[in-house]
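Ligand: flavin mononucleotide. Inputs:
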Amino acid sequence: MWKEVRLLLRGTYRIISGLNGFAYDFKRFLFYGGWRENLSDMEIRNYNTVMAYHGLEKSLSFKNRNPTSGWGNAERVFLRLKIAKMAGDYGYHDKAAKQVLMKFLSLPENIELEKSRKMILEMNSMEFDSDDVHGAILYPLSNYKMGILKHPEDFFLSRYSLREFREDIVPQEQIKRALKLAMKTPSVCNRQAWHVFHSNDSSIIKKALSYQNGNRPFGDKIPNLMIVTTDLKAFFAGSEHYQHWIDGGLLSMSIMYALHSLGIASCPLNWSQTPKRDKQLRKAINISPNQTVIMMIAAGYPKDVNKVCSSTRRPLEEIFSNIELK
Ligand SMILES: Cc1cc2nc3c(=O)[nH]c(=O)nc-3n(C[C@H](O)[C@H](O)[C@H](O)COP(=O)(O)O)c2cc1C
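Predicted complex:
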């Protein structure tokens, strides 16, 4: 009888704390989400612009494109470029957008149109350009083949979460190299709404980990710590209310694989925390309020001899089935 009451109370508590978490997330979406589409905010405009110019990039990349398509996105990009020009404040995606729109307007089917000429004229007076190549690029099969691993099992099955590292700190250049690799992670419309905070300062790491509940008893010996966040400003539609978790989770996994490819071990550290804990971390660490904390990642070099949890995987049959119509 008491056991049942205890279970019921525990379940009720969990539902209430879940509701508290949903309410907190909703409040953050309301305050910091990009749903207002305030295009005079440079960051919101950039996330919003990439949605439009990425549509054009897709249109440019199809072999048999409809020659009349893409104008909706072209006009959206053009409006945002005009706002960037007026603000005199441009981000990466503003510059990329200008190049993509220029390529779209220069297509044989568009270049002679009056509206294209007007847009190009105005864009020529915009004093910002990107150094990267945007739009659609030819990508030969040989480049795809460069990604084929001789022994993929060696790479994937040799990554383990490591919790006890060598004492020496991983140099920041190595961390940055891993992050550059990890940034090839796909993100919704290529918005890349990520931020990674990094420290190798033991007092800062100690402070950050004091709010995290999965680092005992190894937290005090972690050489490098990252906090992965995603920017709520990048998400506009109500249906995108979970997108920041997805994009941030994908980046986090890429970071761990990138570290692994460089001989650096890591351990993901969960941030499934209560609103109270999340607020406490934000009080102690400088994280702008529009950034959602996805997780922390501990990193360091493996020792000569390491002991890890075997953490074996379920049989594939338990997680695999064919897609079937009902
Ligand atoms: C989102 C996430 C949060 C995690 N949080 C913790 C944590 O707080 N502490 C910890 O020791 N391990 C944590 N882990 C590591 C898991 O326990 C580990 O990935 C799992 O057992 C599989 O083992 P493997 O990574 O060695 O393959 C976390 C993993 C993930 C993906």
